[in-house]
Design goal:
By secondary structure, the chain is mainly alpha-helical. Helices cover 79% and strands 0% of the residues. Helix 1 runs antiparallel to helix 2, helix 3 packs antiparallel against helix 4 (174-233) and helix 5 runs antiparallel to helix 6 (375-439).
Length: 450
């Protein structure tokens, strides 16, 4: 009989049940529903071996051998499972690291792309700022250079007003109107240039503010790109690798990929829009320079042409005055010569007058009846009367001649003053105004572009 009281009950693995088919089922103890631990099973086997008799041991030996084999399979299975688990986890970790490295590479490419876009936009904006500065300097130079032609025009007006004070010209002629238009045009041009210069300065201020934003974004992207490059190139043996406990719970990101891309794109679009506005304003400044320069040159040339017309008129008038002066002078000379002739004739009449008077005086002293009214006496009296009439006629002719000479001399003086006035006007318009305008290096010239 088997001593079943000291034997422990063991569960039977399913893979070992076929080995017990060769044993007597009636001799086997009942199987317990639960399985103890491995160490406890081994102790129970030893105790059962020690307490069993030889037939019991012999009968249970196949079961115990198979059970020990089954128990030996558990560590092997656990070791295989652990190795397989380690391999699986290693594969997952390697896959995760590879995926992280790939995503780092994608991030590096994205950051590098937008960094290049920002750097390219920065260079274009820097060039635009330089162009705007050059345009503003050009306009400032134009404003300063317009002072010289304005001063020349004002001096021309002052010179012509001085002529008016000398009664050279008593009315406003075409030159005065053209000079006034020229001065107004130059002042309006300077005003328009100053407004444009202020607009360019304000635009360049906005450009520089945006350029600072581009600099900061480019610097941030460069720093981020360096960090991502460093992270992409890290290996297990890298000297920077160390433990940072709890870093996974520290979240300091402030953007997402979409918001980051949108921010970079918005900055580039802002820069492009600002550059477009700056280019349009700079083109407007070029058009203003071209239009104003051509207009000022046209007015300047029109004033010069008005001066030439006026000078031609003055020259013609001066030639006419000189011609009249020559004729008048010749007439005065002729009248003076006639007056001299009359004076000589009057002086010459004094001799026969004296002779006749002396004869009458002497004949009036004839004694008594000898004092006869003879033909000689009549002839002498008629001769005296004729001489007196002749002298009176010549004197009257001389007086008229001298009056005419005086009138001609007065006209000559007036003509000389007119000639002097015209000559002075001609000198001022031709030598002091037009000559300076022709020799002056005018800053504006007709052009199609600046």
């Amino acid at each position: 009989m088997l001593n079943t009281g000291v034997l422990k009950e063991f569960p039977m693995p399913d893979r070992l049940r076929f080995n017990l088919e060769y044993a007597n089922p009636d001799l086997l103890p009942p199987v317990a529903p639960t399985l103890p631990s491995t160490m406890k099973n081994v102790e129970n086997l030893v105790s059962a071996k020690r307490d069993s008799s030889v037939p019991e041991w012999t009968l249970r030996d196949p079961y115990r051998v198979n059970l020990v084999d089954a128990l030996r399979d558990d560590p092997t299975r656990l070791k295989v499972d652990a190795l397989r688990k380690c391999q699986e986890e290693n594969q997952v970790t390697d896959k995760r690291l590879a995926d992280t490295r790939r995503k780092l590479n994608d991030r590096v490419n994205d950051v590098n792309y937008w960094r290049k876009e920002v750097v390219s936009e920065t260079e274009k904006l820097e060039k635009e700022i330089r162009d705007v500065d050059l345009m503003k300097q050009r306009i400032d130079r134009e404003i300063a250079e317009l002072d010289a032609p304005l001063r020349v025009s004002l001096e021309n007006t002052g010179i012509r007003r001085l002529k008016k004070s000398d009664n050279a010209v008593l009315y406003l002629d075409g030159v005065d109107y053209e000079l006034t238009k020229e001065q107004d045009a130059i002042k309006n041009a300077q005003k328009a240039y100053r407004i444009m210069a202020a607009s360019l300065q304000a635009q360049n201020g906005r450009n520089k503010v945006l350029l600072d934003d581009l600099y900061r974004d480019s610097s941030a992207k460069h720093t981020a790109l360096s960090i991502d490059h460093k992270c992409y190139g890290m290996r297990f043996t890298s000297p920077e690798v160390r433990a940072y406990p709890g870093i996974e719970v520290y979240e300091n990101t402030i953007s997402t990929p979409n918001s980051w891309t949108q921010c970079s794109n918005t900055l580039v679009l802002r820069s492009q829009q600002t550059r477009k506005e700056s280019t349009i304003l700079r083109q407007e400044a070029k058009n203003l320079l071209t239009k104003t320069t051509n207009e000022l040159w046209r007015i300047w040339s029109r004033v010069n042409e008005a001066f030439r017309v006026k000078i031609n008129q003055l020259e013609d008038h001066s030639r006419q005055l000189h011609h009249r002066y020559t004729i008048l002078n010749q007439e005065i000379c002729d009248l003076i010569r006639d007056a001299d002739l009359l004076k000589r004739n009057i002086e010459e009449k004094a001799k026969p007058l004296k002779l006749t008077q002396t004869r009458l005086q002497w004949r009036s002293n004839r004694p008594g009846y000898e004092n006869c009214h003879d033909p000689a006496h009549t002839a002498m009296r008629d001769g005296l009367t004729e001489i007196h009439q002749t002298i009176a006629t010549l004197s009257k002719q001389l007086k008229d001649t001298e009056a005419t000479i005086n009138n001609l001399n007065y006209a000559k003086v007036s003509l000389e003053h007119e000639i002097k006035t015209v000559s002075d006007s001609l000198h001022r318009d031709r030598d002091r105004c037009l000559a300076v305008r022709n020799a002056f290096p005018v800053c504006f010239r007709p052009c199609m572009s600046v």
